[in-house]
Every structure is written in C-alpha cells, then in structure tokens.
Amino acid sequence: MSNNVQTPLRFTTQQAFASRLTLATLTGRPLRISQIRPSSLTNPGLAPHEISLLRLLEAVTNGSAIEISYTGTILEYRPGLITGSALGSGASGGVIRHEVAASCTRGVSYFLIPLCLLAPFSKAPVNVLFTGPGVITSATLAGDISADTVRTAILPLYARFGISNNIELRILRRSNPGPRGKGGAGEVQLVFGHQVRLPTTLHLLNPGRVKKIRGVAYCTGVPASNNARMIEAARGVLNSLTADTYIFSDVSSAPLQPTADQASESVKTKVGIGFGLSLVAESSTGCLYSADVVSPTSGGIPPEDLGHQCAHQLLESVSVGGTVSSTAASTILTLMAMSSEDVGRVQVGRNLVSGEQIIGLGRDMKMFGLSGWGFREATDSSNDMVISVVGKGVANVSRKIT
After folding, report:
1. Helix (H) or strand (E) holding 12
2. Which of 18, 130, 176, 313 is the Cys-Cys partner for 188 at CB 3.0 to 4.6 Å?
3. Could you tell me which of 234, 263, 266 has the C-alpha nearest to residue 248?
4. How is residue 152 annotated by DSSP?
C-alpha cells in the first residue's frame, strides 16, 4: 500500500505462509522468508500450493514484486495495492480466473480464507473463479476446511464487522482429493462486493447456547446412499444436543479429466471421487462452531464412521468454549487488528489461546506493526479468556483515492 522503500521483515520456514503473506499485503510491509524446506531431498523450496497462492496475490494486487531464489528456498515479497477485479488489473469481464495445478494437495479454502481477508480492503469488488485440475472443494487430510464451511461458518462472521453486502461463495463443481491427495478438478467462485474504509469494532463476549445445527453431506462419483448413512449417524449423536438439526444432501457426478497418456487424449477419467460432511452449530447469540470430515483417498472407512466422527468433532468444538471456533479465530483476530482505533474484545476458549496457531499469529502481528493483545479471565462462570485487541486503523487507501 506504500511506495516507500522499506526493509523486508525476515521470517524463516514455511510455517504460517499464507497468514504472513496476508498480513504483509494488508499492512504494505515487505517480507523475506528463508529456509523454506531446505532439507528436503525430493521437493525443496516452495510447494505447488504456495506458488499458486503467490500467483493469486499477484492477480488481485497491482505493483506487487515477487522474487524467488533459484532453489525456491528464499522468497521476497513486496506487496502492491489491492485492486481486486478492477478493469485493467488482470480481470477478464470482471472475473479473475485462477488456475490451480493438478499437483496441488491443499483444499480451495487455503486460498479462499486469505482472499476473503483482503477483499474488504480492495479498490474494486473481488470476483475470482477457481478452476483447474487441482481445485479440491472438500476438506483435506492436510487440515483444510471445506468450501461449505467457509460459506457457512467463515463468511457470516464478516457481518459483525459491518461487511455483509454482495458476498457469495458458489460451489459450481464439487470434488474430493484424488490419488495421493492431489487434484480434484472442482470449480468455485467467490464474489466479494462489499469494500469498506475500516471494519467496525467487535465486542463478542456472550457465547450463548447452541440452538440449531446445519450441515452439508456431499458425495462425488459415489452412490447417494453414502450421504444418507452419514446423515443418519450424525443425527444419532446430535439430536440429544438440539432437535433443530438439518443436514442437506448434495450428490454430484465426478469431474472428468483427460488422462496423462498423450496417445489417448480423447480418453477421460473420473477424478475427485469421495464423500464428506460439513457441520455448523449456531448459538442463540449467533456464534458459530464448525466441524469437517472427508473420506480418505485410500478408502476403507464406512460413511457411518465419518458421520460419528464429524458429530463428535462438532461437540468438541462447542466444548472448547468461547464465541469463535478454532477455524475462525485467525480471521476474527486479523479483522479486529485492522479495524478502527478502538479496543475490541472477543471471548475464546482457554485451550484455543494456548494453541500454536494463535500464539504464532499474535507474534506475527506484532512484527508487522499491529497492536499487541491483552488477556484477562472471562467474567462469567466459564473457564474462557477474553482477548482485547486495539485496532490499528489501517484505512483502505484504494477506497480513499476512488
């Protein structure tokens, strides 16, 4: 966001790669990451999904500079202005097409969550179509949540910051991880049309009680009975928590992709075959808790086991306490740090505060010049903690000049 030459902030290893690039783009601070998988004998340096994320950031910004060493183990990134899908910035017909290579092993949520954080501070609305043989819309064994969970448990949280208009996530073609967790050939479109100067200050201190549970059971290229079996198993666990439980069933055919054999280019094979379940619990105060499971690429796990596993994961997420789940905590805390110059407060579970991800996020924010966090015990009878964050008031520069 700034044209002044600044000394890059220095980080090591690929840990929190997407989070650090997002913070760098939001604050306009350049960074340098070294020792990216230096000891790997087969795949040193940046992974395919990390290179794809860099390409995405280059597409939605103007003036970004990316330098990668010959071995791929050192990256220097100087962010530009967040332009979104503005005309003349790489968008065709107002839509940016982002191709994901077949070698990508991460779910599409790996790209969606950072993109959603950048979108409110963009010059123009963000409209990105994720396509290609590497798009995986389901959850992954690498820890990525499904696109359904992003739509039902992450995007609604932006309304608490005054960002709620013209936001839509469309799952145009479903897919699951292919062999060795690679590929999927899905298709997802994110439309984020609400840009603001500053997010409003958040005060979220009342978890409330779980009043309803919603979910999506999806299967791709397998019999629809798998969905019915997952839903029945999950409801058997969740009905004791609340009777207002509804799980939608989505059945789709497997995407077709050309084979790798050049001699038979006309022959196509089915990819992205599998099934999974996404559950979201909503409390009386609008707090969201989520859980995700997906069938392994090797198979061998019946749908009933996945249904039970996802239901128990959801109960565990609720039992952690607080007003946000672990999957949404980084999004909430980042938006709080970027909001107006006031003190925002959010109540979280004690186990969440001690997690490696949250501790690392707090340290990274401090390095990027954002405010530190304050901690205190919650005033209610729970064992939760209250995190206080002073907004930095980093205004959306692109909205000012337009």
Report:
1. strand 9-12
2. 130
3. 234
4. I
